[in-house]
């Protein structure tokens, strides 16, 4: 945070508030402020390779809020969910809250072992994955496994939550487009955040559920 231009941020925030009419503070759209969604859709197009419109996006708060919305809209109690092992502990806790069955799937140098997951629970309804940098191991889900995961989701009528928590960073290799950019059957829900590129207390993120937006937005 010592490198973050806090003074500049304050000036820009003050300017934006001074130039905003009162309707901004009473925006009734449950998907979030339209202009913010418009800017995010533009950003996702050039930075992450995702072709989406503002109407495809839902603004959220923290990581748990995004995941909670997805679990509530895509699963029922008793459904099975693939989880990376090791993986995000907060996801494991939410899966328990929603009375879902978590299946831990091992991770190797190429990311989530899709073949192992298909053997253990082929009829799972959801997969939660961190393809850009696996949390906490940091490996990237290979192109071949992304293809296999998409094929499984289409076969099983399942969905994939792409937690792109730090997809903006590329530490030692050329950056892949987002997993969602490969998704032609609308099986991937892209989940992003500004916590890493700006600052964590901003607590602003987004979902790109596309065809599932109306279902997610009703919650």
TrEMBL record:
Annotated keywords: Aminotransferase, Transferase
Coiled-coil ranges per UniProt: none
Lineage, opening ranks: Bacteria, Pseudomonadati, Pseudomonadota, Alphaproteobacteria, Hyphomicrobiales
Top-rank taxon: Bacteria
Span of domain Aminotransferase class I/classII large: 5-207
Database matches in InterPro entries: Aminotransferase_I/II_large (IPR004839), HTH_trans_reg/aminotransferase (IPR051446), PyrdxlP-dep_Trfase (IPR015424), PyrdxlP-dep_Trfase_major (IPR015421)
UniProt-recorded Gene Ontology molecular function terms: pyridoxal phosphate binding; transaminase activity
Protein name: 8-amino-7-oxononanoate synthase
CDD domains: AAT_like
